[in-house]
Amino acid sequence: MISAAESYISISGVSKTFNGRQGEVHALKDINLNIKPGEFVSVLGPSGCGKSTLMMLVSGLLSVSAGRITVGKKHIDSPNADAGIVFQQDVLLEWRSALQNVMIQAEIRKGDLKQAKERALQLLKMVSLNGFENSYPKELSGGMRQRVSICRALLHRPPLMLMDEPFGALDAMTRDQLQIDLLRLCADNDMTVLFITHSISEAIFLSDRVVVMSPRPGRIESIIDIDLPRPRRLAMREDTRFIEYTRELTQIFKGLGVFREEY
Amino acid sequence: MSIAAETPVVPKVNVLNRLLAMVPPALWSVIVLIIVWELSVKIGEIPNYILPAPSAILAEFGAYWHRLLPNAMVTGGEVVFGFLCAVLIGVPLSVFIAYSRFMERSVYPLIVASQTVPKVAIAPLLLTWFGYGLAPKIVIVVLLSFFPIVINSVMGLKSAPREMVYLARSMGASGWQQFWKFRLPQALPSMFAGFKLATVLSVIGAIVAEFIGADKGLGYLILVAGSSFNITRQFAAIILITIIGVVFFMVIERLERVVIPWRHRGLSETDA
Fold first, then answer.
1. What is the rounded end-to-end Cα distance, in angstroms, of chain A?
2. Which has the higher per-residue pLDDT, A89 or B117?
């Protein structure tokens, strides 16, 4: 267990209720989670378990109904501009080239634009998008678009990266490549990652820890340490330990009734 | 197999194909229409006061251009000026509606309701209020054309996906930055759709206004020519009105390409 003192993100007693048409909806109930600096933590769960809501609360874009979230000792009660965010949709601005899409981050933050441009070009190169800097989103494939949006989130060297099913809309092969791209970027940039996913193997492959959530209301079911060496390689997915983790997580979801096998 | 490979398919390029390729398709349909029109009038011996042949209309242009042109300028001026006023009123209004729930609830229904009022019916009233000058024409043009501008601009300004707003806020973007860097560019394609609809309505508005009360302009010219059964002159004026409308539409379309070039770049959806 990581104590609140040594954690970078500290979530304590957090609940979130939405006021829906059928009255109150409990999206999250009594969430407690501490994340160390530099840790890669995945939140894994079926749809409707409130995992995206949890990320939105950490970003400060939504506010908690109860409890308290701190990021780097800072109490989160407004949008946390220190974070970089990637959504499932790439949300690229159609009127801007790939480079300009990355640069919007610097333009809004009003930093040194020349330095930012250098970093933007370097980031794009790291995800093999050199040569596409001046392409418009319309001219890029889904995988390339999501890579641009990851570069955009990284431009200002955020200490915290929040990713909400960033590869959920991509095909399996593109997904594999982007996972590796992401791990490379993580190795080069000192940051903590909170990664939301509904893919068991993605969560194991990327993370130091996997937080398993169950739905209605969203609760943390268990937390599993992933003890696999880094750098991670695609072949590790056939490793017996990897398969063991997969089995363990599948078992948990079966217990939760997420998977029903009789037919 | 080898025989097929040795005889490459040479595309047959004849004179007709080249000629067809030189002229845009839209122009071809116009040319065909004119030819059919001319022939049917000539063969059917239709008198000029029923349907004048294109050649007769062309002759009318030659003989009467010193009156047609100045009147076309008047109508064109009303169209453009009225349209610009509609944009200057419609766009800021749509920003208020898109940003304020109160405005949306209070003003928007009124704007929609105002569109059900037949403009032709209130035109005489406007004449009483504003006289015979330029003012009532502009008012009618604005009344007709600002509706699609407002509707489409509001739609465009509200079209920013929720994630885009989240993204902007996560960067610490101010409300002003959110508007200029995210919402407005996102709205531009929709806005231009509204502008293009408005160009057509502006022309209709100007002619309706001139019908009700004017002493110049192409609408006025049509009325005067009609009272003396000069059908050829009426046709000449109608064609000029059409030209004004088409040219104005094309200008806005060209402007759209300049303002939102990203829309016309890259793969079209059918290619992808």
1. 40
2. A89
Per the CB < 8 Å rule, is B265 touching A136?
A: yes
Whether residues B141 and B25 share a domain: the answer is no
Considering only CB atoms, which chain B residues are within 8 Å of A89? 161, 163
**Token pair belonging to A226:** 């992933």
Residue B26: inside a domain, yes or no?
yes
Are residues B243 and B218 part of one domain?
Answer: yes
**Range(s) of the domain holding residue B173:** 54-264
| Element holding B124 (H helix, E strand) | helix B119-130
**Are B202 and B115 part of one and the same domain?**
yes
Residue of B162, B169, B171 to mutate for A, most A C-beta atoms under 10 A: B171
The reported pLDDT for the residue numbered A209 is 95
Q: Which residue has the tokens 């407690």?
A: A32
Q: Which of A87, A96, A105 sits opposite B171 (nearest CB)?
A: A105
Choose from B162, B164, B166, B167 for mutation: most chain A CBs within 10 A. Answer: B167
User: Is the separation of the CB atoms in B127 and B213 below 8 Å?
Assistant: yes
Is A95 near chain B, with CB under 8 Å? yes
Query: Are both B183 and B248 inside the same structural domain?
Result: yes
Instruction: State the Cα–Cα distance between residues B172 and B76, nearest whole angstrom.
Output: 47
What's B180's domain CATH number? 1.10.3720.10
B93 CB neighbour count, 10 Å cutoff = 19
Sign of the torsion formed by the C-alpha atoms of B166, B168, B169 and B170 = positive
How close A100 comes to chain B (CA, Å)?
12
Residues B84 and B115 both lie in one domain: yes
**Nearest Cβ partner for A95 among B161, B262, B267:** B262
Does B170 contact A at CB distance below 8 Å?
yes
pLDDT in tens, chain B (272 residues): 444 455 556 556 677 777 777 777 778 888 899 999 999 999 988 888 889 999 999 999 899 999 999 999 999 999 999 999 999 999 999 999 999 888 888 888 888 888 888 878 888 888 888 888 889 999 999 999 999 999 999 999 999 999 999 999 999 999 999 999 999 999 999 999 999 999 999 999 999 999 988 889 999 999 999 898 899 999 999 999 999 999 999 999 999 999 988 877 654 444 33
Q: CB count, 10 Å around CB of B215? A: 10
- Give the chain B residue whose CA is nearest to the CA of A86: B167
Are residue B140 and residue B194 in the same domain, yes or no?
A: yes
B29 and B69 together in one domain? no
Task: Please state the domain count of chain B.
Answer: 2
Chain B residues within 8 A of A87 when measuring between CB atoms: 163, 166-167
Q: Is the Cβ–Cβ distance between A228 and A42 less than 8 Å?
A: no
Residues of B in contact with A58 (CB under 8 A): none
CB contact under 8 A, A104 and B188: no
B80 and B195 in a single domain? The answer is yes
